[in-house]
Amino acid sequence: MTQVFNFSAGPAMMPKAVLEHAQQELLNWQNQGTSVMEVSHRGKYFMEMITQAEKDFRQLYHIPDNYKVLFLQGGARGQFAALPMNLANNKGKALYLTSGHWSATAAKEASSFTEVDEVNILLEGKLEVGELDFSQIAAEYDYVHYCPNETISGVEIFDLPKVGSAVLVADMSSNILSREIDVSKFGVIYAGAQKNLGPAGITIVIVREDLIGQARKETPSIWNYEVQSKNDSMINTPPTFAWYLCSLVFKHLLEQGGVQEMEKRNQQKAQLLYDFLDQSALYHNVVAPQNRSLMNVTFTTNNDELNAKFVAEATACGLQALKGHKVLGGMRASIYNAMPIEGVQALIEFMRKFETENN
Hints:
CATH topology of the largest domain: Aspartate Aminotransferase, domain 2
Order of helices and strands: EHHEHEHEEEEEEEHHHEHEEH
Radius of gyration: 21 Å
């Protein structure tokens, strides 16, 4: 059987070593004779596991002591609603910087809970990020929200928006732990797990402590940061297996050299693929070079029939999930932390062969 490389945007591939580890102890976790899915989430062994998981995650991201780390449910979409309910209770409005589908979706959801001003930060007609200095107006808002990596279009924002003393919020679902950041520059960072952290079903929220305790009265307890923080993210039964797998991913990343090493590998993988695209006569990437995502590489032949042929033949060769999102079409190679460089090399080899045969 051809070796399979999974380029899915999410749920995405996980490190093979992590899956093998989970497989080995699936039926007998911590010598308990049961799986981690069958033990009490408030029992000694599970509590020890989640305590270590948070410690490892904090080490990976150098998270300051004045930040809480919550392991929640509901995905990033849940946080689209949770944010205004927890944060937009002083000035009563939020500023959303949109750069694609997901940042716009977050703004739309938030508008059901607070007044939202939306600014498209892409230059007109281009997949290129323009001005990011909002320091003159940010003080008018309870928070400023942006999405540093748009998975659908493959646009990544590497510079921090300037928001003065305002609260900066980031949806890092698709680039968390892919490169180093300064957590202290943010009020809230949130991310669905299913791309770089683990399986779908758990969401990490990093929130500065002074922002906790401001939720409006009608906020459901499951979305209330204060309630969740006081209850170890477990006001109800959490997704225990997903949490466990995240804990294994954190250990694996630390063993591999941490986020610094992941960033180095991710830059190398992305550069290989973009360099090939730039010299190709068949494939095209239309994102401005300074905003090309390290995680999601989009490309097209500008021919729908040829795109479909490419995806079908690639799949037959073990290169899975390369079809672009329905919003954009074309192709998309998601090359998250778990994707080895061999996967990118195999993709380029196939692309080169396909180009020769379809010129």
